[in-house]
Amino acid sequence: MTTGDGHGIGPEAEDAASFPRQTDGFERLWTPHRMVYVAGPAKPTDDGNADCPFCAAPSREDSEGLIVARGESVFAVLNLYPYNPGHLLICPYRHVADYTDLTADEAQELGAFTQEAMRTIRRVSGPAGFNLGMNQGAVAGAGIAAHLHQHVVPRFSGDANFLPIIAQTKALPQVHDEVRRLVAEAWGGDA
């Protein structure tokens, strides 16, 4: 690559389109059903609470909205595209984007629901650990940045086994209906 005056700026750049096709090492697991989420009419938007799936979920039946438990100011819902079985999201009912926008009561209940989610998932499936987190803003990885949600991701020994590493494939052994039923039935039980 050169500047306008012909001086080089490092290695010569070549047009990638002229290269023979190189594989990237990833096998493809085709999931056309995700197109409803990615490009279809059901794709979540960040345009406000009228289109927000976290605002819509509480108005549905629990099984239809994938809701596990409801509180006064927050609810627990299964992630539609989970990292692992039992991946929950703890969401305030109120459409707020930032953790600092929560009231004291919402923040307290969000914390209590996160704790109960961990207790419940331990009773249901015995994970070895958890990842907890919030992606604040689209640049931080939030798919739906306009509505705050806390991820509770159970981690199992071997969940990062050879499949994701060698085959670039994630195995999810339970379907949403089964996971939602098991977690909902165990919610609030004895530790």
Automatic annotation (TrEMBL):
Residues 53-162 form the HIT domain. Keywords: Hydrolase, Nucleotide-binding, Nucleotidyltransferase, Transferase. Substrate binds at residues 79, 151. One of its GO terms (molecular function) is hydrolase activity. PROSITE patterns: HIT_2 (PS51084). It is an enzyme of class 2 (transferase). This is Diadenosine tetraphosphate (Ap4A) hydrolase.
